[in-house]
From TrEMBL:
It comes from the Eukaryota. Residues 789-840 form the Vps41 C-terminal RING finger domain. It holds the Pfam family Beta-prop_Vps41. CHCR repeats lie at residues 568-712. Belongs to the VPS41 family. It comes from Carassius auratus. SUPFAM superfamilies: TPR-like (SSF48452), WD40 repeat-like (SSF50978). Residues 30-359 form the Vps41 beta-propeller domain. One of its GO terms (molecular function) is zinc ion binding. It is a peripheral membrane protein. This is Vacuolar protein sorting-associated protein 41 homolog.
Amino acid sequence: MAEVEEQGRKLSEESTDESEEEDTEEEPKLKYERLTNGVTEVLQKDAASCMTVHDKFLALGTYFGKVYLLDIQGNVTQKFEISSVKINQISLDESGEHVGICSEDGKVQVFGLYTREGFHENFDCPIKVVALHPQFSKSNNKQFVTGGNKLLLYERNWLNRWKTSVLHEGEGNITSVKWRANLIAWANNVGVKIYDISSKQRITNVLRDNTSLRPDMYPCSLCWKDNATLIIGWGSSVKICVVKERDPTEMRDLPSRYVEIVSAFETEFFISGLAPLADQLVTLYYVKENSEHMEEEFRTRPRLDIIQPLAEGCEEISSDALTVRNFQENQCRDYRLEHSEGESLFYIISPKDIVVAKERDQDDHIDWLLEKKKYEEALMAAEISFKNIKRHDVQKIGMAYINHLVERGDYDAAARKCQKVLGKNMDLWENEVYRFKTIGQLKAISQYLPRGDLRLRPAIYEMILHEFLKTDYEGFATLIREWPGELYNNMAIVQAVNEHLKKDPTNSILLTTLAELYTYDQRYDRALEIYLKLRHKDVYQLIHKHNLFPSIKDKIVLLMDFDKEKAVDMLLDNEDKISMDKVVEELKDRPELLHVYLHKLFKRDHHKGQKYHERQISLYAEFDRPNLLPFLRESMHCPLEKALEICQQRHFVEETVFLLSRMGNCRRALQMIMEELADVDKAIEFAKEQDDRELWEDLISYSIDKPPFITGLLNNIGTHVDPILLIHRIKEGMEIPNLRDSLVKILQDYNLQILLREGCKKILVADSLSLLQRMHRTQKRGVRVDEENICESCHTPVLPSDTAQAFGVVVFHCRHMVHKECLPSPGNVPGIQYCNICSAKRRGPGSGILEMKK
C-alpha cells in the first residue's frame, strides 16, 4: 500500500514544478494497498484475467484457466480448475452462493458454491461474458446469460431443464455484460443495448462514438450505479444513462421503458473501468505511450481519477498515477476496475498485480496533515473526530505540534499550546518546563502553567520566579501578583528579593513585590511599612482588608501626608478603632493636617468634636478662611468672644459682622458694613435679615449724604420701609444717580403690590364662595335615621319599636340625634340652635337642627 500510494503521489509531484506543488497540492481522496498473501503467490506463477467482488469474498480468474476464491485480505480459500486457457469472466449472484464462469475455449459453468447443482456447457466459440440473475439463488430466478458471437439467455423450466433464448446476434462479439434487477446491459462492436427481462423487450441502443478503436483492444466498461442508472465508458467517452418509465399514453408499440442520456463527456485518456462513488465517478484510465502530458518513464502508468459528472462535461476531483507491476507491458484491455458497494472499496486488476483503493478515513486525513506539517489542522481534526480515529492520539499530535513550534522558534505559540495539549498530565508539564529551561525560554511558558486545583511541584514555580528575578523585575512582579502564594515557598522568594534589594535598595518594583509577598505571608506590618515608604495606593486597602488599625496609630501623619482625603475618611469611618482624641494628639504638631481632620469631622457631625471648636477657630482662620464663616454660622459650641477676638485681630470684617450681630450688637455690625465694606447692598441685606426699624433708620441716616447709597436704598427698601420716609429726607438739589429709574421702580413695585393684593382678594372671594356652596349642598342632603341610631340624651333608639305611633326626632347637622321630648326645652324646638354636645367644642355652621316628625 505505502509503495503504491507513494509512487502514485511521486508521479503527481514530478509532473509539475516542485515549488508550485508545495503550495497547491491537495490531499488525496483515496489510499492504496496491494492485495497480498495468497494472491502474490498466484500471480507469480499465473496472471489475473478477471475478478468479481462480493461483500464477503473475491473471485479471481487467471490466464491458466483457474478460479480462486479469496477472502478480503487475499488469502486463497478455494480453488477451481475450470480450463487450461484464459478465464474471461466470473459472475456472482447477490447472495454469493452461486458462481458463473466462462473461458476462452468456450466452456461455461454455473454452479453453487455450497450445493451440487450446476450447469456445464462447451461451445464451439470463445465465450467472452457470463452474468447470473442477481437473485439466482431463488427458484423462480434461475436465469443467466452468456455472450460470444451472440447473447444467449438460459432459463430453467418447471421440468428442471435449461431453455435457451437468443437475445441478440449479428453485430460482432459480445464484449461486456452487466445484470441489475430486471435489466441486462451488454456491449458489442456496434454499441450498448439494454434488455428488460420482465417485459422481454429491448429498450435502447446506445451507439459507440469512436468507431476507429478496435473493440477487442479498447473494450467497453459497463457499471450500474443503481437499478435505473447505467454508466458506459468506451474509449475516451463516458455516458450516463437513466432508464425511465414511459407515459402509458405514449406507448403504442414502443417499449414500456426508455433511456435518457443525462450526461456525456470526453476524457483525456482511455477508460479501462468505471465505478460509482456517491454522486461522483471513479475512473481507471489507460495512458497511451504517445501522450504528451507525461514523461517517458511514466507514460503507460494507469491513473485512477475521481471526477464529478456534469451535463456536458466533468470536473476532476483527484487524480493518482499508480505504479502496478509490469505496467509498461499492459494494454487498455489488461486493466479492470471492480468495486464493493458495501464498503466503497475499488479493486484495480492487472495481469500481475491487484491494488485496492479505498476512501481515506480521518486517520489518513491526519496522516496527510502531519506529513505536510499542518499540525494545527491535524490537532483540530483529531479533537473533532477523537471518537472515530483509531491510529492517532490527540495528545501525541499536540506534542508533535509543540515540538514543531519549538523547532521553528515560535516559543510563545508552543507554550500557549501546552495549556491545551498537556491538560492535567503533570509529568508532561514538568518535562516541557525543563525543556523550555534548556532552550532559555522559561518566560514564554510561565504564564500558561497550571495554577488552579492541579499544580506542579513548588520547585518548578520557584525556578521560573528566580529566572525572572535575574532578568526581568517587572515580569517577576507580574507573576507574583497573578500566581497564588501557595504555589511556591514564600520565604525562599522573600529571601531572594531581599538579596537583590541589597544591590538596589530603592527599586520600587522590588519593594512593591516584597510588600505583596509579606502580605501573602500575613506579615502585614512589614508590608504596611513598605507601602507607606513608597506611598503606594494599596496601603488603605491593606489596612481595611487585614484590620491593621492598631499598627497605624503611630503612622497617622505618614498616612495624612500620603493622601489626606483617604486617610481622614478612613480614620472617621473607624473611630471605634482609632479614637478622635488619639488622632488629634498625633496631629498636634501638624496643624494643617489637624484642620483637615477636624473640618471633615465637623462636616459629618456638628456636635461630635465640640470640645475642639475653639481650636478650630484659629485653624480656620489660618488655613481655610472661606469655611470660617460657615463654621461660625453652624457651630453651636463655638465661644463667640474668642471668635470675635481672633476675627478682629485678623481684620476679618464679614466674620466680625456676623459675630457682632449674633452677640446682639447689630448697630455696630451695620456700622462696620457701611464703613469697612462700604457695601450698601450688603447693608440692606443685613437690615432685611434683622428686620429692625431702628436699623433701617440708622441705615437711612448714614446714607442720606451719600448719593450712591441713596440709589441703592431707593431700589431695595420698597417692600420693607415706606420710601416716602427716605424721599422726604433727601436734600433739595442733591444729585442722585439714576434717580428717575429708582422712582420708576418704586412705583412699579407699588403697582405690583396693588395687583397682588387685588389678585389675592379675588382668589379669596372665589374660594370662600365655592366652600360656602359646598357646605350648603352638604347641609341640604338627607340624613339616614334607622333603629341603630341612639338618642344622645337618653341613650335609647331614636326610632320607637312601633313606628305606627307618633314620634319626633331632632337631627343636628353634626349628625347627633335626640328625641324631641329629650331636648332641654320641650315643645320649643325652634329655640334650640345648637347641639348641646358640640356647643361646648365649637359654635358655627353644622350645628343647626333638622326636625323629623311623624
